[in-house]
Amino acid sequence: MITRFLHCADIHLGYQQYGRKERFNDFAHAFNAIVDKAIDGGDTRAARAVDFVILAGDLFHKRSIDALTLNQAVRALQRLRDKKIPCIAVEGNHERSYYEETIGWMKFLALQDLLILLDAEFVDGKPQLRPWEPRRRQGSYIDLQGGLRIHGLRYYGSGTALAVAEYAQAISEIDRTGVGYTIFVAHAGVEGNSTIRPAVSHTANGSHSTQGRLPGTGPFSQTIPIG
């Protein structure tokens, strides 16, 4: 079985670069081009080009967004949902809410069933890895068809290296029955991280990303740089 997904990050909707309205629109056009690629891959006869989309942080350029920026995100993500293409995401540094008790816009989109927003709660410095619960719309990993498991970790700034190391240890301790391949999503450059690489098959990061291949399959990822 071949699984195809599209991996993107750093979309930065709402960014009026150089103070120009045209650049504000350009970021939205770029995101819609990504959605087009995910839906038909350039072949309008295809039911869908990929099985899911990974969004590795910074869908938005800032935490506080206006209605137009939110509308750009909602309309694009609705197109994926209408084609039954899940968008699996983590929060980046630009969109993370200021306070833990508040709900950021990425969480809002998850509550609208437009995203599967992955993250792990840390208790006493240890990540609590739990499967995605559709009813509560939260979890640190999700299992997809074909024995594929996807883990996600939000942006942790200077604490990223430690958080990734603890997450890698937690992965090694949980049940992997039926799991053939594992993808780790984070808004950080962890490809060279010596702790996470042995624990997963592939990393899908923020601006630092590469194409990859699952053993025994054809190409399985497509990375499109934005901005």
CATH topology: Purple Acid Phosphatase, chain A, domain 2
Strand neighbour order, sheet with most strands:
4-3-2-1-11
Order of helices and strands: EHEHEHEEEEEHEEE
**Count of the domains:** 1
CA gyration radius, whole angstroms = 17 Å
What fraction strand?
15-25%
Low-confidence stretches: 209-227
**Major sheet description:** 5 strands, parallel
Count of DSSP E strands? 11
Tell me what the CATH architecture is: 4-Layer Sandwich
**Helix run count:** 4
What does this structure look like?
It is a single chain. The protein has 227 residues and is of the alpha/beta class. The chain has one domain: Metallo-dependent phosphatases (Purple Acid Phosphatase, chain A, domain 2), CATH 3.60.21.10. 25% of the residues lie in helices and 18% in strands. It is built from 4 helices and 11 strands, in the order E-H-E-H-E-H-E-E-E-E-E-H-E-E-E. The strands form 3 sheets. A 5-stranded parallel sheet has the order 4-3-2-1-11. Strands 7-8-9-10 form a 4-stranded mixed sheet, covered by helices on one side. A two-stranded antiparallel ribbon has the order 5-6. Strand 7 and strand 8 form a beta hairpin. Helix 1 runs parallel beside helix 2.
Brief synopsis:
With 227 residues, this protein is of the alpha/beta class. The protein is 25% helix and 18% strand.
Annotation keywords:
alpha/beta, 227 residues, Purple Acid Phosphatase, chain A, domain 2, 5-stranded parallel beta sheet, 4 helices, disordered C terminus, globular
